[in-house]
């Protein structure tokens, strides 16, 4: 079990907007990559959730853009558990550049949903234990 997980990436030319820096929508994608890494490292693969009869859905994302990122920057996405409710949970995410500067941070709230009923369902123990 690893509650804090990091993922290193490099900014590509296709992620740059007309202002010469990373387009704001790409930060959502970077954070999604970070969350997927967090699930994988902690053994919560898609198949595991399917076996538990659930899936997770993102219901809210708040991002603070702190410093621009440019093509060729080496970025680290850090994902840590923030809070756990009955069916919802939040992951804190931070994006640092190669100099250690905080470029963006955010809080992503997700809900565990029953595969069949498509209604919220209590988060399983396998997920809950990561928030202790």
From TrEMBL:
Gene3D superfamilies: Hotdog Thioesterase (3.10.129.10). GO terms for molecular function: fatty acyl-CoA hydrolase activity. InterPro entries: 4-hydroxybenzoyl-CoA_TE, HotDog_dom_sf, YbgC/YbaW. Keywords: Hydrolase. CDD domains: 4HBT (cd00586). Pfam families: 4HBT_2. It comes from the Bacteria. Belongs to the 4-hydroxybenzoyl-CoA thioesterase family. This is Thioesterase-3. It comes from Tumebacillus permanentifrigoris.
């Amino acid at each position: 079990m690893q509650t804090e997980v990091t993922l290193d990436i490099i900014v590509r030319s296709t992620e740059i907007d007309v202002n010469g820096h990373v387009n704001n929508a790409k930060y959502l994608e970077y954070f999604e990559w970070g969350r997927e890494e967090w699930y994988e490292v902690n053994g919560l693969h898609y198949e595991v959730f399917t076996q538990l009869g659930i899936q997770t859905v993102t219901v809210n994302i708040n991002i603070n853009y702190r410093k621009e990122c440019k093509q060729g920057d080496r970025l680290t996405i850090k994902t840590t558990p923030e809070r756990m409710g009955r069916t919802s949970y939040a992951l804190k995410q931070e994006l640092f550049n190669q100099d250690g500067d905080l470029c963006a941070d955010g809080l992503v709230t997700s809900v565990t949903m029953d595969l069949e009923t498509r209604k919220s369902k209590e988060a399983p123990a396998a997920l809950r234990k990561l928030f202790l």
